[in-house]
Request: fold
Amino acid sequence: MNVDRSIARSIKDLPATGKVARLRRTAARGKPAHAEENMPRIITIANQKGGVGKTTTAVNLAASLAAAERRTLLIDVDPQGNAGSGLGIPRDQVDGSVYEVLLDGRPLAEVVRRTELKFLDLAPASRHLVGAELELAGEQGRESRLAQAVAGIAGDYEYILIDCPPSLGLLTLNGLVAAQGVIIPIQCEYFALEGLADVLRTIDLVKGSANPGLQVDGIVLTMHAPNNLATQVEDEIRKHFKKEVFKTVIPRNVRLSECPSHGKPILLYDVASKGCQSYLELAREVVRRVDRIGRAA
Ligand code: ATP
Ligand code: MG
Reply:
């Protein structure tokens, strides 16, 4: 899918006020907003390709950060609502969701739910989000709705993760405009890089307009199987993207694919599994990267 031209046009002169504007000014000066007191690191997990491990990464990275006692919020902007069901909160069992936040201006704090993990909260999706792309299309400031909402609770969290749908529409765009960093999961398989150019182009577009401070926090290799193809794909991606690729590789691990049906992150399902250990390692790497950005400021 190519980047939607009308989206490209509409984010050009996106107005920003209040905290959002301050976040952007700070980022534009080269100082990451995370370095400011009480500011969370806001990371969007995006790849327009479906089934590459976005939600698995969002849920388990968020759970791993929470296990390290980092106050974390996971925002689900995917109508599929998989992040919520993976945390035991199915989208049909929520009163308020990100839909009302985006469409009705409802404060994010009002829809936030606690999870089984003390330091992890969830802002759930609902099936109504399916229509949000169309409903938002005619609205003012349609790409910055989430950014505005997040600004209202920024001080409550150290990390905010946003799980995106497999498209580059308005929902993903809201995720990119709200974030300081993007993590791109790539599945270690043939055609792994398919569509990646579109994601990177969209990130550049958002950087050049609505969100100058946006950066790629890293590419994470997922579902790595012990075979030659996966190793070749990994080598190619590392050669091309170098330091942007996280050292931690997420293996293909059956325990990771089982835990969503139990409504639990892998930490609460099988902490000893390779899948769990790899997401804990990824969280350590993310924290190190984010702390380094903060110290350099
Ligand atoms: P979508 O684009 O539909 O939102 P996604 O990119 O969020 O998909 P996931 O839902 O995280 O992808 O993963 C797709 C499928 O692969 C799921 O069934 C998930 O349980 C499984 N899966 C993800 N990561 C792994 C892994 N490391 N090992 C085994 N199975 C995995
Ligand atoms: Mg998903």
Q: What stands out?
A: Residues 54-55, 78, 82 surround magnesium ion (ligand 2) (CB under 6 Å). The first strand starts at residue 41 and ends at 45.
